[in-house]
Amino acid sequence: MRRLYQSFASGAMSTMTEYAKSAPTREEVDALAGITVVEFGTDWCGYCQRAQPLIDKAFAQHAGTRHLKIEDGPGRPLGRSFRVKLWPTLVFMRDGVEVARVVRPTDVAQLEESFAALN
């Protein structure tokens, strides 16, 4: 796995406030063991900026969750492989399999439901 993502593979929660410009491959994401949430968006996206406090609050309740914040856009293969259409999109995965998805969250309850689906 690329160096940027080694800390994510360990299961530690991301403390990034910006979306990573480089991304792992779909194969690398699918190979991650345990619980992973992949968040797609961009730093300039108004919806992403408005949702960030909700996302941060939800992740505060799930501190051990691996959180990958990946910049998405045209020509970005990881977002295309997940068929991301709107930002932010959060894909909740267990052992490389999508379990739940939240698009443009408007309250913490939406995110909590997806976290609950992982258990």
Helix content: 25-40%
Q: CATH superfamily, called what?
A: Glutaredoxin
Strands in their spatial order, largest beta sheet: 2-1-3-4
Named at the architecture level, the CATH assignment is: 3-Layer(aba) Sandwich
Overall structural class, as computed from helix and strand content, comes to: alpha+beta
CATH T-level fold name = Glutaredoxin
| Average of pLDDT | 89
- Beta strand %: 15-25%
Helix/strand order, N-terminal first: HHEHEHEEH
What is the CATH C-level name? Alpha Beta
Unreliable segments (pLDDT under 50, ≥5 consecutive)?
1-15
Shape: globular
How many domain regions?
A: 1
Q: What's the arrangement of secondary structure elements?
A:
Layout: H1 6-9, H2 26-30, E1 35-41, H3 46-60, E2 66-71, H4 77-81, E3 89-94, E4 97-103, H5 108-117
Parallel strand pairs: 1-2
Antiparallel strand pairs: 1-3, 3-4
